[in-house]
Design brief:
- The protein has 14 helices and 17 strands.
- By secondary structure, it is an alpha/beta fold.
- Strands 1, 2, 3, 4, 5, 15, 16 and 17 form an eight-stranded mixed beta sheet that branches. Strands 9-12-13-14 form a four-stranded parallel beta sheet.
- Helix 6 links the parallel strand 10 and strand 11.
- The longest helix is centred in the middle third of the chain and has 18 residues.
Length: 437
């Protein structure tokens, strides 16, 4: 039996309950056992102690959008390596996208992933089911069967649902099931052979670009289909100012639409491509400073509901060669907090808002069916992250736990680092500098 742990004297931030105060938590495998303010200590004995003085203690992060690659692409990532990387990044729940091989479009493969996650994962793994069979966009996957197996939503991520009738049918089922259709909004005809944002940098480098309109036209179409059906549209990895405005207007008109944004789209621009080459190749592409500003504003006014990593690990060879042949994607679990804390330190978003977008807000979207509250209330599962908001560290991809070393942040100094991650009362990651008694 694992001994209870007292997390002592940290700054407890729990946006779901409006708490921001110094205090302590006693946690165990049965959940959060006790919470005290200030210098209070529990009356019971027989626990170990983690000194959280100067550290933030908050609910474990929840990632609605990541790629664990298994089955089929184990050279890029596995559930074992991906969840260890997630724990290192402070995530206690990750939702894995279905663009595996075979894709997550049937009972057998969903059961395979969930059983493997129970056996080899160190944090909670919740699968996303396909919208269409084989992600081919021709025929709906068995959505009701996938829902019964506990998927958190449906997506053909990596590809859009290009056929509007298939998308309409998926949204109609979404209305009945209460599960979102998570859409990779991209008009592939407009995107063409583009590899980076269409604009000044693509023109300077002589590379084919992906215009903002490739995203925005599909966002507009899907919003209208959500309006028509009453279904729940969740827009993945929003990247343009135009998309933010479309979503803002749709929400004001009562359309059931939610949205996510990634750390890299919040903190990097197309200029990063000049510096980092294919390591900054991602889909949707890094956009302009004006787009970044609009995304941050959308996050602050709740047009954008959550932050999700779109963790997309690749083998080294996948990013080599020219832009046309290199894979899209950034390995994001282990740099997410450090990147996002830059926005806090420069006053672009508040710390409490950041934590809410990583914890309580995604929990509201998926948590009820899976027993995830996104809070630190006594009695709930002890899913907790402890981080130092001011600790500086240099990104060294060779030290990543993830198999994916593909990041445009190599050599960057980030300020903000995860010190410990606790999942269901068990320590699944701890930094060497953390003091235990």
């Amino acid at each position: 039996m694992v001994q209870p742990l007292l997390i002592r004297g940290g700054r407890i931030i729990d946006p779901g309950r409006g708490i921001d105060e110094t205090g302590s938590l006693l946690v165990g495998t049965d959940g959060i056992l006790w919470q005290g303010r200030g210098d209070e200590v529990p009356s019971r004995s027989g626990y170990s102690v983690l000194d959280a003085g100067g550290l933030i203690v908050c609910p474990g992060f929840i990632d609605l959008h990541c790629h664990l690659r298994q089955p089929g692409f184990e050279n890029k990532e596995t559930i074992a390596t991906g969840t260890r990387a997630a724990a290192r990044g402070g995530f206690t729940t990750v939702c894995c996208m279905p663009n595996t091989e075979p894709p997550l479009d049937n009972r057998e493969i969903i059961k395979y992933v969930t059983k493997l996650a129970d056996k080899e994962g160190v944090v909670r793994v919740l699968p996303v089911g396909c919208v269409s069979k084989g992600r081919k966009g021709i025929e709906l996957a068995p959505l009701s069967e996938l829902a019964e197996l506990g998927v958190i939503g449906f997506s053909d991520d990596g590809s859009p649902v290009s056929d509007p009738e298939i998308m309409r049918q998926a949204l109609e089922y979404s209305r009945e099931s209460g599960l979102p259709v998570i859409e990779h909004c991209e008009d592939t005809g407009l995107a063409g052979s583009g590899v980076i944002n269409e604009g000044a940098v693509s023109e300077k480098l002589g590379l084919p670009g992906i215009p903002a309109a490739a995203e925005e036209t599909m966002v507009a179409r899907d919003i209208e289909l959500a309006r028509l059906t009453g279904g729940w549209l969740h827009v993945a990895h929003v990247s343009t100012a135009g998309s933010v405005e479309l979503i803002r207007r749709a929400k004001s008109e009562g359309v059931q639409v939610t949205a996510e944004v990634t750390p890299h789209h919040l903190t990097l621009t197309e200029e990063k491509v000049i510096e980092c080459g294919t390591m900054a190749k991602v889909n949707p592409p890094l956009r302009t400073e004006d787009d970044v500003n609009a995304l941050i504003q959308g996050l602050n006014d709740d047009t954008i509901d959550v932050i999700a990593t779109d963790h997309a690990p690749h083998a080294g060879a996948d990013k080599q060669g020219d832009f046309a042949g290199a894979a899209f994607g950034i390995s994001g679990f282990e740099t997410a907090l450090g990147s996002l804390m830059g926005l806090v330190h420069n006053g672009r978003i508040t710390l409490n808002s950041l934590i809410s977008k990583l914890t309580f807000r995604p929990a509201k979207m998926i948590g009820e069916r899976h027993g995830i509250s996104g809070t630190l209330a006594v009695g709930v599962p002890a899913d907790i992250v402890i981080f130092d908001p001011d600790k500086e560290w240099v990104v060294n991809p060779e030290e990543f736990v993830s198999k994916g070393k593909n990041t445009p942040l190599a050599g960057s100094t980030l300020r903000g680092k995860v010190m410990a991650t606790i999942f269901r009362g068990k320590m699944v990651y701890i930094d060497d500098s953390v003091k235990m008694e």
